[in-house]
Every structure is written in C-alpha cells, then in structure tokens.
Amino acid sequence: MSDWVVALSRGRVAEDLRPLWEAAGWHLPDLEGSRSLYFPPQGRSPGVIVARGVDVPTLVAQGAAQFGVVGRDMLAEHPDSGVLEVLDLGISRCRLVLAGQSPSWPDGPVRVASKYSRLTRQFFAKAQHPVEVVPLSGSLELAPLIGLAPYIVDLVATGATLRAHGLVEIRSILSSTARLVVNPGIWRTQAGGRSFVREMAAAKGRMMRGSA
Ligand SMILES: Nc1ncnc2c1ncn2[C@@H]1O[C@H](COP(=O)(O)OP(=O)(O)OP(=O)(O)O)[C@@H](O)[C@H]1O
Ligand SMILES: O=P(O)(O)OC[C@H]1O[C@H](OP(=O)(O)OP(=O)(O)O)[C@H](O)[C@@H]1O
C-alpha cells in the first residue's frame, strides 16, 4: 500500500498530471466525475486530496497531505507557505504576464487587475513605476473591457484568452510549471519520501520520452 497522499487541484493540474501518474503505473481517480474530495491510497497508487490550488500548500504544511502539486505561480505569490519544493513536474506550463489593449509600456501611474497582487506589486516596484492593484479572483480579461482597470496581470499559455478579449502581452513576469511540494517535517523524518520523489522523477522522464 502506498504511504503517500498528494493534495492537488481538480481540472487542469489533475488532467495534466494524469499521463505522469500513468507513466508511474499508478491509478488517478476520475476527479471530475466524482463529488469526493478524498481518495485513499490504493495498492501502489498514492491517495489524493482535492483542494483549491491556492490551498494546496496549506494542506501540505499542516500535514493533511504529505505531498502536493501546485503551480510555481502560486508558490511565488505565497512565498511563506511553509512547504519545500522538491520536483519541477514540467506540466501546466504557463507564464504570468502584464497585458493591456496596446503593447506599449504604461504612461504614468497604472491600475492593474490581478489575483497575483504580491507579484504585481513586486514587478512594478522593481520597475520603479507606481501601481494600484485591483484584486480580483477570476475573469481578469474582462477588467479592461468594463473599465475596471486598463491593465491585467494574469496567466497565459496559448494566448487565446487574451486575443479573445482584444488584449496583448506587454511584459512577461514569471514562467510557471507545476511543482511537487512536500511537508518539511516529513521530508526530514521519513526516508521513503525520497524514493517517492525519485519514482515521480522517473515517471516524468518516461512521460516526456513518450510524448517526444
Ligand atoms: N492556461 C493555462 N495553461 C497551463 N497552465 C495553467 C493555465 N492556467 C493556469 N495554469 C496553471 O494551473 C494552475 C491551476 O490553474 P487553474 O486555472 O486550473 O486553477 P485556479 O482557477 O487557479 O484554481 P481554483 O479553481 O482553485 O481557483 C495555475 O496555478 C497555473 O500554475
Ligand atoms: O492563454 P490561454 O491558453 O488562453 O490560457 C490562459 C487562461 O487560462 C487561465 O484561466 P482558466 O484556467 O480559468 O481558463 P481555461 O481553463 O478556460 O483556459 C488563465 O487565467 C487565462 O484566463
């Protein structure tokens, strides 16, 4: 029986993780087709806790799950989450960008809508440019259209969502992929955690060779 439980978010991250899980020879339950939020370990397959992405580090830091899978964007936005990053899984690849209706750098103080308030403030502080962040937790691309804020800081992968709203990228702020994180206490005391990470790294290698 697997000793491990992994916290992850439903949707994109879980589906991107499926080929890696399969390459490891593990079973990943159909999270979309179920109302369950906890799937215990089954044979060699680790258990899964389903959580909001932003809550994954908390669940791992508190020991509800020993491991978690979460985007680097989330870890950068919440740097004091108390988890250790142990593996870049190379999936859910995206970038955090500043976007607006024209590609030119904003003139004067800017209003920016984002769910990444901290990274947005940090980025403008580095550019020595005054900023006001309008905190939103979704539908960011609407903000310029409805006059809430002329700029947004949001995740981009294909660029289709920006294009659909007449927006263009102005600057790239951060590149992100999903990361495997671990509870630091467990990492120190449970030697088996290292072989779990090695198994995941090997599965990632097989998955990448398979898709090459
Ligand atoms: N378009 C995308 N392409 C690839 N990866 C993405 C994309 N959008 C987000 N991600 C990555 O997937 C993670 C989860 O994003 P997703 O949009 O599924 O969840 P969320 O909306 O942030 O979470 P929740 O639904 O819990 O609020 C992000 O933190 C990011 O690392
Ligand atoms: O550049 P793109 O490939 O269009 O992806 C970017 C979109 O993906 C994310 O949203 P979310 O995950 O909510 O949207 P999605 O699942 O509909 O892409 C992000 O907040 C963007 O809106």
Automatic annotation (TrEMBL):
<protein>
    <recommendedName>
        <fullName>ATP phosphoribosyltransferase</fullName>
        <ecNumber>2.4.2.17</ecNumber>
    </recommendedName>
</protein>
<comment type="pathway">
    <text>Amino-acid biosynthesis; L-histidine biosynthesis; L-histidine from 5-phospho-alpha-D-ribose 1-diphosphate: step 1/9.</text>
</comment>
<keyword id="KW-0368">Histidine biosynthesis</keyword>
<feature type="domain" description="ATP phosphoribosyltransferase catalytic">
    <location>
        <begin position="53"/>
        <end position="190"/>
    </location>
</feature>
<dbReference type="InterPro" id="IPR001348">
    <property type="entry name" value="ATP_PRibTrfase_HisG"/>
</dbReference>
<dbReference type="GO" id="GO:0005737">
    <property type="term" value="C:cytoplasm"/>
</dbReference>
<keyword id="KW-0808">Transferase</keyword>
<dbReference type="InterPro" id="IPR018198">
    <property type="entry name" value="ATP_PRibTrfase_CS"/>
</dbReference>
<keyword id="KW-0328">Glycosyltransferase</keyword>
<comment type="function">
    <text>Catalyzes the condensation of ATP and 5-phosphoribose 1-diphosphate to form N'-(5'-phosphoribosyl)-ATP (PR-ATP). Has a crucial role in the pathway because the rate of histidine biosynthesis seems to be controlled primarily by regulation of HisG enzymatic activity.</text>
</comment>
<dbReference type="InterPro" id="IPR013820">
    <property type="entry name" value="ATP_PRibTrfase_cat"/>
</dbReference>
<dbReference type="Pfam" id="PF01634">
    <property type="entry name" value="HisG"/>
</dbReference>
<dbReference type="GO" id="GO:0000105">
    <property type="term" value="P:L-histidine biosynthetic process"/>
</dbReference>
<dbReference type="GO" id="GO:0003879">
    <property type="term" value="F:ATP phosphoribosyltransferase activity"/>
</dbReference>
<keyword id="KW-0028">Amino-acid biosynthesis</keyword>
